[in-house]
Amino acid sequence: MAAAIVNEHLPKPLDATSEQPPLFDGTTRLYVSYTCPFAQRVWILRNYKGLHDKIKLVPIDLQNRPAWYKERVYHENKVPSLEHNGKVIGESLDLIKYVDNNFEGPSLQPKDPAKKEFAEELITYSDTFNKIVFTSFKGDTVKEAGPAFDHLENALHKFNDGPFFLGHELSLVDIAYIPFVEKFQAFLSGVWNYDITAGRPKLTKWIEEVNKIDAYKATKTDPKVIVELFSARFLAKH
Fold it and tell me: What is the dihedral of CA 141, 170, 37, 224, to 10 degrees?
C-alpha cells in the first residue's frame, strides 16, 4: 500500500539568482522541474514510498537555470538528479529503480518472473513510446502517435487481474509511463482534439485508476500549462 497522504508545501523553483543548497551535507535531494515528465517519474515514486522526509525536493527553473547546477551539482544540466550518499546520479529510469532498491517503503518491482520480464520490456519500450509521440508533433500527428497508444492498450491486456500494466498492483512500469501519457493526453486533446482514450478501454481505465493515487495527483500539471509549454516547444515557427 502507498504511504499516507502528505499535503506537501512545494518550494519555489531555484533560478539563476538563487543560492546553491549545501552539497553532500547528509541530506538526500531530488532535483526536479515541476513540469518535467522525466523528473515527475522519480517525484511520484518518492511520494508513493512515503519518502517526503527522507528525500528533499529541490525544484529548478529550467528556463532560467542556475549556473551552479551544471558546474557543481549535475554536469549533464538536466533533471531529475538525485544527491545521495556523497554522489549525484541521473537518468529517470535508472533513478526509479535506484530509489525503489535503496529506500524504505513498498517495493514497486514484481517478484513473479513473468511479470518481471514484461516489466523490463515495457520500461525499455517507454523511450520508444516517447520518441514516437514527440516526433509525431512535427508530422501527421494523430496518424503517427496512434500506434504508440495502441501498444499501451495491448500491453494492458497482458495481465487481467487488475487495471495496471502488471495487473492489480502499481509498479515502476506505471510510474514510467503516466507522466508522459498525462502530458500527451492534454496536448493532443488541446491542439488536435484527439482523444487518446477513444476506442482504448484498457487505457481509459488505467488513466482513471492512476488518477486516484494521491502520490501521483500531487505531481500533476494543469493541462492548460502543458498545452502552452508544449506549443511553445514543438509548434513554434523557427
Answer: 70
Yes or no: say if 163 and 207 are a contact pair by the CB < 8 Å rule. Answer: no
Please say whether the beta carbons of 109 and 172 come within 8 A. Answer: yes
- Cα 210 from Cα 188, distance rounded (Å): 19
All three cell numbers of 78: 538536466
pTM: 0.96
CA distances from 167 to 110, 121, 218 (A): 10, 15, 23
Quote the DSSP letter at residue 20.
Answer: P
Amino acid of residue 236: A
Instruction: Tell me if 123 sits within 8 A of 173, measured CB to CB.
Output: yes
One DSSP character per residue, 211-230 reads: TT-HHHHTT---HHHHHHHH
Query: Cell for 53?
Result: 522526509
C-alpha 109/C-alpha 54 separation (Å) is 20
Q: What is the pLDDT of residue 6?
A: 65
pLDDT, averaged across the chain = 96
Closest Cα to residue 3, out of 37, 58, 54? Answer: 54
Q: What is the grid cell recorded at 159?
A: 495481465
DSSP state of 62: G
Cβ–Cβ < 8 Å for 77, 65: yes
Distance CA 74, CA 201 (A): 41
